[in-house]
Amino acid sequence: MEKGVPIRAISRAIAALKAINRQGSLTMMEIARSAEVPYPTACRLVQTLVYEGLVEQEPDRKRYRPTAMVQSLAYGFQDDDRLVEIARPHIVSLTRRIGWPISIAARVGRNMMLRDSTHANTALTFERYYPGFTLPVLDSASGKLSMAYTPDEERETLLRWMKVSQEVDPEYLKAARAALNVERIRSQGYAVQGRNHHNLTPGKTASIAVPIFLGEYFKAAMTMIFFASAMKPEAALDRYLDDLKGTADMISAELTQAAVQNHKG
């Protein structure tokens, strides 16, 4: 096996389990569609998940749901709640000043996972987004920012995985990779997505993301989401970039200080 290449069968099984866990209960056809696998493959994957005790068939129904054993997969995970705890008052305050919703997201695999947002704190939004919502790393402002600050070797490994997994269109991946200007994003300190296509209202919003650091290391992306029809990204940058960077800097400073104090304690 080529170095750094994921095992396709495991990737598919994880995709099936994530689909079932996300929806709560699915038919076999729905699992195949959500996991983007052929129906016969979905059947074999679900049979394996049932055998391992992670999925069960509902009584008298041809639907499958996660079991309590799924919770055991998270037993060893230690989340850093300080990020949300420290960032929350800052992003709420920023939304009050500028009106637009702000989100905090961190990369998990090939997706950006929402950790917190202020969509519920403003009327300037089409939808509300909650922790756990994911966006693709190559087609979101937060994802582009995260990829730019990811160490070169790790970024190349991730891109290689995406290429060989056959779950991402090769032409799209090639174009997205070519458009990812790592040096420019790092030097400017922000990333832009002119149209957000993978959210709940495709094409209706745009976004600007700035980095949050823990010491010298990239920790998360702070993103402002605005109506694409309201202004062009260039106008949004002129109007809001300084405020965005200032808020992210304050969060970074407090996050770093808290980590130092915790280490001393």
UniProtKB/TrEMBL annotation:
Q: Molecular function terms in GO for this entry?
A: DNA binding; DNA-binding transcription factor activity
Question: Does the keyword field hold Transcription regulation?
Answer: yes
Domain IclR-ED, by residue range, is 69-257
User: What PROSITE patterns would the database entry show?
Assistant: HTH_ICLR (PS51077), ICLR_ED (PS51078)
What highest taxon heads this organism's lineage?
Bacteria
Gene3D superfamilies documented for this protein? 3.30.450.40, Winged helix-like DNA-binding domain superfamily/Winged helix DNA-binding domain
Keyword line: DNA-binding, Transcription, Transcription regulation
Q: Name one GO biological process term.
A: negative regulation of DNA-templated transcription
Q: Which SUPFAM superfamilies does UniProt cross-reference here?
A: GAF domain-like (SSF55781), Winged helix' DNA-binding domain (SSF46785)
> Which part of the chain is the HTH iclR-type domain?
7-68
Task: Specify the protein name.
Answer: IclR family transcriptional regulator
The scientific name of the source species is Niveispirillum lacus
Q: Upper lineage ranks?
A: Bacteria, Pseudomonadati, Pseudomonadota, Alphaproteobacteria, Rhodospirillales
